[in-house]
Amino acid sequence: MGQEIGRAEIWESLQNQWDLVVVGGGITGAGILREACRLGLKALLLEQRDFAWGTSSRSSKLVHGGFRYLMQGRFALTRACVRERNRLLREGAGLINPLSFLLAIDQEGVSTRWAFEAGLCLYDLLSGKWAHRTLSPPDLLRMSPGFRPRGLKGGFLYGDAQTDDARLVLRVIREAVNAGGTALNYAPVEEVLYHSGRAVGVRVRDEFRNQTVEVFCKVVINATGPRADSLRGKFGRGMKIRPLRGSHLILSSDRLPLVHAVTFRHPSDRKRYVFALPWEGATLVGTTDLDHGTPPQEEPAITTGEMDYLMTAVQEGFPSAGLSLEDVLSTFAGVRPVVGTGKVDPSRESREYVILREKGLITVMGGKLTTFRLVARDALRAARTSFPLFPLPGAKGPILKSPGENLLGGGDAPLPRIQGRHGEDASEMANSAEAGDREIIPGTPCLWGELRWAARREAVVHLEDLLLRRVRIGLLLPSGGVSCLSRVRTICQKELKWDDARWEKEKAEYLALYRRCYSLPGPF
Ligand SMILES: Cc1cc2nc3c(=O)[nH]c(=O)nc-3n(C[C@H](O)[C@H](O)[C@H](O)COP(=O)(O)OP(=O)(O)OC[C@H]3O[C@@H](n4cnc5c(N)ncnc54)[C@H](O)[C@@H]3O)c2cc1C
After folding, report:
1. Strand 282-286 and strand 241-252: pairing?
2. Which positions ≥6 away from 106 have C-beta within 8 Å?
3. Which range has the top average pLDDT, 99-113, 234-248, 298-312?
4. Of 226, 100, 168, which is closest to residue 420 (Cα–Cα)?
5. Is 225 in the pocket of ligand 1 (CB under 6 A)?
6. Residue 97 is inside which H or E element, if any?
7. Considering the entire predicted model, what is its pTM?
8. For atom 38 of ligand 1, which residue has the closest CA?
9. How far away, in angstroms, is 154 Cα from ligand 1 center?
10. Which is it for strands 211-222 and 17-23: parallel, antiparallel or unpaired?
11. Pocket lining: 295 vs ligand 1, CB cutoff 6 Å
12. What separation in Å is there between the alpha carbon of 54 and the centre of ligand 1?
């Protein structure tokens, strides 16, 4: 990543011998690259599309301490999640932010209320901070005006955290690159290469030059999320991914303003809880949990059934708001890389990660946002069994590097946001701002300077990379941000050297993608 070293130069360097090749540029691959660089390994990450193109830009954006694990009696795991969450809140302030939740307890939940109460007490004890409160129905309704969940008997207020998932991936990759790693997007790995029955490298395709390159290394780690089985190929026996789709709606916060996230039982699917939460100045509603069938090679999209399911939830949960499909700014769907055990109800499948070793290929399935560092360390420990000379990952050190001294050049740029998202690069970014870069893109919390910096320095190849993942204005503005495109064009043409023909092609492809995968399904 980084336009400082051009793509051509990175392709040339692939011929070198690497210690480690990580396949997949989601949070799992990013974390592994980062930890490998800390250990001084010569590490390369290859991503078939854009960084965070997969599930890691399509999650519910929660950096949670694992309350669900706690309710399953998994104390050690919850403790680890809570610790990682708290560290991320400290080290990544501005990117990982506190989020308070209101959990509504209804008639059907009354009998398990004590379990929630006990769970939240433990959650706070593990976190070292007493953050939860029991709420009466009037308390809960006062804290979220307009919220009227069916059969309300009371509830809880508790604390967790949220992030911008794609930006978390980018920050981790950026830190890895600054520490000597190499990361290349739009570089699909076609297959793992084996010699004497052991993985020794990968064959990667350069789509722009229509050629393939063999890359050799000591260890290959497969971090391809829902597509993990495809790379395991014929050696992949036993555990398999069960791809489970989850979709979201993004609503205008003018129509559904929230201070706290709210979680409540779906009005017609009484087994499941749904949520609405404030995110990036909008309101995120989720989620579903359905078998997706085959692992996604193309972008998943919300179905009409999922749209109705989520609309029913918010319409009944907030009856006075009079919400309709016209209030939906955008939609998105992601596919969970869950390890399948054949449970009938998808929501009963475990969300824990698994690390496999097959013929020297290490495969990681099911990594989460909160625990990416722990997953990375476990993967690198597994790699040592293939290559014992690899250093052992230590247990100390920060997850995210400090952004350093506050050198930002004046103005009133929102510092925590910029420092959180750009870490070590925040000062350089702010100091290189051009006229108008400190202005906010109307309808979003994002600065024009963030968009310019991304175009200049964050390995943007296509317009969709810029508008859907580097900044999220494609999700936060109506019609994919079409009203901003003339100013985006000026920035892209300057920073990415796109001529008029390239701009028109990128714009047409982006708008077609938006209609197919990020807008409402069907004839709306
Ligand atoms: C609806 C939903 C909500 C969720 N909410 C949360 C949440 O709130 N908090 C949380 O912690 N987790 C959440 N998760 C889970 C979490 O998002 C995922 O577990 C995590 O993002 C998986 O990351 P990953 O890096 O393993 O996979 P991915 O992010 O999918 O990354 C894999 C990458 O590998 C690339 N790839 C695939 N094949 C190849 C190849 N041959 N060559 C090169 N690259 C390849 C893909 O393009 C992709 O970018 C949610 C998931 C879903 C679907």
Report:
1. antiparallel
2. 149, 150, 151, 152, 153, 264, 265
3. 298-312
4. 168
5. yes
6. strand 96-106
7. 0.96
8. 224
9. 35
10. parallel
11. no
12. 5
From 32, 99, 224, 279, give the residue whose CB has the most ligand 1 atoms within 8 Å, as the site to mutate: 224
CA 13 to chain CA centroid, nearest Å: 29
DSSP string, 290-329: EE-SSPPSSPP---HHHHHHHHHHHHHHSGGG---GGGEE
Per DSSP, 62 falls in state B
- Is the distance from CB of 102 to CB of 147 less than 8 angstroms? yes
**Looking up tokens 């205008």, which residue turns up?**
252
Ligand 1 proximity of 27 Cβ (cutoff 6 Å): yes
222 lines ligand 1 (CB under 6 A): no
Task: Tell me the torsion sign for CA atoms 111, 115, 121, 124.
Answer: negative
Q: What is the pLDDT of residues 191-226, one digit of tens each?
A: 999 999 999 999 999 988 889 999 999 999 999 999
Q: Are the beta carbons of 264 and 317 closer than 8 angstroms?
A: yes
Nearest CA to ligand 1 atom 15: 368
Cis before 287 (ω within 30): yes
Q: How far is the CA of 346 from the centre of ligand 1 (A)?
A: 17
| Residue 1 pLDDT level (bands cut at 50, 70, 90) | low
21 CA to middle of ligand 1, Å?
Answer: 18
**Exposure of 195 by Cβ count < 10 A (0-12 exposed, 13-18 middle, 19+ buried)?**
exposed
What does DSSP assign to residue 7? H
How far apart CA 283 and CA 374 sit, in angstroms, is 30
CA-closest candidate to residue 475, choices 519, 442, 431 = 519
CA distance 185 to 79: 34
Whole-number Cα distances in Å, 314 to 139, 310, 430: 20, 7, 39
How many CA atoms lie less than 13 Å away from 519 in the CB half-sphere? 17
Pocket test for ligand 1, best of 336, 349, 361, 517 (most atoms within 8 A of CB): 336
Q: Which residue has the higher pLDDT, 409 or 461?
A: 461
* Angstrom distance (rounded) from CA 183 to CA 418: 22
- On whether the CB atoms of residues 493 and 522 are closer than 8 A, the answer is no
Length of the chain: 524
- The answer to whether 27 and 372 are in contact (CB under 8 A) is yes
Coil vs helix vs strand at 127: helix
